[in-house]
Amino acid sequence: MTSVPNALTFDLEHWYSATLVRDAVDDPRDRVHESVAIVRHLLDKHEVTATFFVVGQLAREYPDLIEQLADDGHEIGSHGHTHTPLHDLTAVSFRRELAASADAIESATGRRPEGFRAPNFSVGPETEWAFDALLAEGYRYDSSVFPAWTPMYGVPRAAVYPYSVDVTDPFTAKVDGELWEFPAAVFHPRIRMPIAGGFYARLLPVRVIQWGIRLLNRREIPATLYFHPWEFNPAVKVADLPSHNRFITFHGIDRTREKLDQLLNSFEFGSIEDVFGPMDDETQKNNSSSIVD
Ligand SMILES: [Zn+2]
User: Fold this and answer.
1) For residues 22 and 13, what is the distance between their CA atoms, to the nearest angstrom?
2) What is the full DSSP assignment across 41-59?
3) Region of poorest pLDDT, from 19-33, 154-168, 227-241
4) pLDDT tens-digit readout, 126-175
5) 11 Cα–ligand 1 center, Å
6) What's the Cα-to-Cα distance from 267 to each of 32, 207, 210, rounded to whole Å?
7) 164-207 pLDDT, tens per residue?
């Protein structure tokens, strides 16, 4: 196993593209620089690199910021070009999204992205054509499978550890696919409570997240966590949202920074590229056999 067992990722988008606020915000203030600054400060403090899945349009808008993240040693992946969930795309328009976001990221950093994270974890049985498209566009891995049931997304039968993908059966771990999947972390292979990030990480006590990461790491499964830089910036809270949407979107936002700080103190993290680099068939076989317990 690698010395960097857990993957830390951020989906970098405008805070007002979060699903439940999108329609409620008119004339939003842009918080990209200040939100990313909070996250960078935390990563610098712990000397940790992470993967930033960046929306292509945002990379066009802020090329200097994206270049700076890459220069700091962070991996830049694609979060689509327009932050459109895959349910609203076709295989053809998805390939256009992948190509356009890769072009935008390459313009900013000089390097094409190797990884992809779908808006709203929208890779599931109805959108499994995504894997073919990712391969065709030259991507090396996906990190969009949420192996748990949630009201908004999830594939509860999917593998819970990084696996290579057979595009004809993409949610079952195989040994020799060309594309890899890094699913979001759940508490335990058989207790599929989401702990990976977003609303779940803001809701759960940090001790529960730490417990889950330990349960995975004990089985040599790296935990893949995800956050959004805006989740570290309480300034994005808007008042005029229905209470349910407000709860899901902003609950715990005042404590996210402290929580990630504690997680970075407790475990070793890196970008997916850091975790992925040394991954080989042997590592995956170990993961596959350890999953039984
Ligand atoms: Zn997103």
Assistant:
1) 12
2) HHHHHHT---EEEE-HHHH
3) 19-33
4) 999 999 999 999 999 999 999 999 888 999 999 999 999 999 999 999 87
5) 6
6) 27, 13, 8
7) 999 999 999 987 778 999 999 999 988 999 999 988 889 999 99
Average of per-residue pLDDT across 255-279: 90
DSSP bridge partners of 173: 165
> Tokens for 34?
């200040």
Cα of 83 vs centre of ligand 1, distance in Å, is 6
Q: Can you read off the two tokens belonging to residue 5?
A: 């067992």
Residue 230 CA to residue 31 CA, distance in Å, equals: 7
Determine the pLDDT at residue 4. 52
Please give the helix or strand (H or E) that residue 225 lies within, else none.
strand 224-227
What's the CA-to-centroid distance between 82 and ligand 1, angstroms?
10
What's the CA-to-centroid distance between 200 and ligand 1, angstroms?
15
pLDDT at 1 over 50: no
Which pLDDT does position 2 carry in this prediction?
Answer: 41
Structure-token pair, residue 111: 């390097």
Q: How is residue 123 annotated by DSSP?
A: -
Tell me which residue of 41, 61, 43, 62 sits closest to 51, measured CA to CA: 43
- What's the predicted TM-score (pTM) here? 0.91
Expressed in angstroms and rounded, the spacing between residue 292 Cα and the centre of ligand 1 is 32
How far away, in angstroms, is 9 Cα from ligand 1 center? 12
Report residue 263 CA to chain centroid gap. Answer: 16
Strands 75-78 and 51-54: parallel
From residue 277, give the alpha-carbon distance in Å to each of 141, 147, 234: 11, 23, 35
User: What CA–CA distance (Å, rounded) separates 143 from 236?
Assistant: 26
User: Could you tell me the distance, in angstroms and rounded to a whole number, from the CA of residue 152 to the centre of ligand 1?
Assistant: 13
Q: What's the 79 CA to ligand 1 centre distance in angstroms? A: 7
Q: What structural domains does the chain harbor?
A: 6-290 (3.20.20.370)
